Structure prediction request, 456 residues.
Amino acid sequence: MLDSRKRVLVVDDDEGFLRLITMRLTAAGFSVKPVTSGEEALGQLQLCRPHVVVTDLMMDGMDGMALFDAIHQRCPTLPIIILTAHGTINDAVDATKRGVFGFLTKPVDNKELVRQVTQGMELCMGADVTHDEADGAESWRSRIITQSPLMEDLLNQVARVAQSKASVCLQGESGTGKELMAWAIHEASPRREKPFIAVNCSAIPEHLFESELFGHKKGAFTGATRDHEGLFRAADGGTLFLDEIGDMPKSFQVKLLRALQEMTIRPVGGTDDISIDVRIIAASHVDLSEAVAKGEFREDLFYRLNVVTLRLPPLRERPEDIPLLAAHFIKQLGEPYGNTVKGFSPEALEYLVRYEWPGNVRQLHNVVEQCVALTNTPFIPLSLVQKALSGDMSGMALPPLREARQRFEREYLVRLLQITRGNVTQAAQLAKRNRTEFYRLLNRHDLDPKAFKASG
Prediction:
């Protein structure tokens, strides 16, 4: 029986040699995960959490040293052994200087391979003898694929706040994975054995909000042919995730506030209050504090929900995760599409990393799926990525009108100040606004006219 603690990730694009190494290490008592590309290896890093990585040096796409660099950023203490048929003393010296644990030439001596993997295993376990316990403790984050310091910092905050009863507000652009993060908070909390219920507030008609969340009694209104317990009671003891809470009608906001203050609800048509024990996680792609300032969201409800605010970074702020996510999506999509795509070509991967991703992770998934569906080569070419991006309107996630208007307004003011070299009187005249109103606009967008005088 294999020891689940002795996990080895083996990477080689030669499938015959990969099978050979896998059999040798399995026979030696290791639990082996074989993959055929560096990109796939990065996708598996969070999933199989290896104690040692064995990788070929010369591979199509991401080579062994590029893979080493990517892993080393994420897991600096993880032992990595490089295999090559083209090895030289200089290669070995250079690799070991950069922190590679071992370097073996093909054909690989079986005893030396097992010896080095065993040494790497001892080194890894010596540094973390409770690795299995850590794996179990971190199962809550298993669905979040990342090697980004920004995301790691966020996940550290999640681990801390999950232990409390505090309400959490998740802020982030569309497609950043707010529901996934809410699920992670639930899984890391003492409520993990109870239900996690997610509801999109923008998808509920205004007249059904109270019934959907609080439930109703049979006969309470036309069409109420039976009792309905509602989402609060369905989530009792667990977590209720209210996505896009900024779209909740103001007529219901006061009722939600009362429910959270009293921890009781009353179903529509009912006469008795029902006690509830629910943790609320709210999310919005708009700034709720701005919505409060504009009178679109109740201030008292905002403070009740906003005990802890966590901001999810957009994908453009975590480009190091793009290769990792792309490889993960390729693996996910491989079975349903029944093909053998190994990854993206180096040029295509570079293009993905440089792209702005206005639709964030959701858009990346859409693009990868389209490429996997259309490619007839093991490595997706640049041309297919460009075609997918040019036609992917569903994942473009156009900004809300408010956000687009604010962006245009700021760019317009900047342009006016550039033209007038910071002369506010002239700029206000061009905009057909008085100076007082124009100064208010500048303050709203944090623009200093003096900066434009210097640049002129």
